[in-house]
Amino acid sequence: MRLQSKKQMSETFLIGAMLAIVGGFLDAYTYISRGGVFANAQTGNIVLLGMNIASGDWEKVLYYIVPILAFAAGVLVAEAVRQHFRRRPAIHWRQIILLVELFLLLGIAFLPSGRLDLAANTAISFICSLQVESFRKVNGNAFATTMCTGNLRSGMELLFRFVQTREGALLRRSFQYFGIILFFLVGAVIGFFMTELYGEKAVLFCCVVLFLVFLILFIRSEEKTDEKERMKREKLAQ
């Protein structure tokens, strides 16, 4: 009997692409409407933190250290949710993460731009940390859906290995990385136009995408349950 249940729905290219759209959207959103910053990755914040420590600008130190701490907290929260809910069959722990992201983004949509930008960017840093910690693979390969540097490196490395060996699997894996980057870019384009049109409320688009991902994971878990029940019935019939 053929069974492919080992590949989780959360690791499919579809889910990775949808989450990459959210990642690209949020970067464009925070840059346009939340003070010209990129809240997804923390490398820039760490560099700016060091520069402001060196210059003694302690107000700016606080501005950059808070999102960094929020990102770190997101990793801890994601791991805590995974540990607590991973053995509970009613709902997958990643679906809980998606709901947390969704409701936080709903709140951000109603924070006015300007003096509350730090709170919005901090919450988005936390959200992106939850996502990057919870969804780390596409078809068994390590991916990131909220940043592109690692994906670009991995994609180019696999492409180089394909040129040397001519193994088709390496080329397919390489194209998966480039595909995720492309969907991140698509998210950034959508984020630009929607933020220009709707301002801070444009982030509601991400809520819709995350809810669709939530539903897809739930439907897939039902399909797996049905498959297990079918296998049990077949064994009893033998």
Q: What does this protein look like?
A:
This protein has helices spanning 13-33, 43-55, 58-85, 93-109, 117-134, 149-165, 168-198, 204-237, and strands spanning 137-138, 141-142. The protein contains 8 helices and 2 strands, in the order H-H-H-H-H-E-E-H-H-H. The two termini are 13 Å apart. The chain has a two-stranded antiparallel ribbon with strand order 1-2. With 238 residues, it is mostly helical. Helix 6 runs antiparallel to helix 7 (168-198).
Mean pLDDT: 87
Q: What is the count of DSSP helices, taking H or I runs of 4+ residues? A: 8
Distance between the termini: 13 Å
Characterize the quaternary organization of these chains.
single chain
Number of strands: 2
Give the amount of beta strand, in percent: under 5%
Secondary structure: helix percent: over 70%
User: What is Rg?
Assistant: 20 Å
- Please list the strands of the largest sheet in the order they lie side by side: 1-2
User: What series of H and E elements makes up the topology?
Assistant: HHHHHEEHHH
Major sheet attributes: 2 strands, antiparallel
Structural class computed from helices and strand pairing: mainly alpha
* Shape estimate: globular
- Runs with pLDDT <50, length 5+? 1-5
Sum this structure up briefly.
This protein is mostly helical.
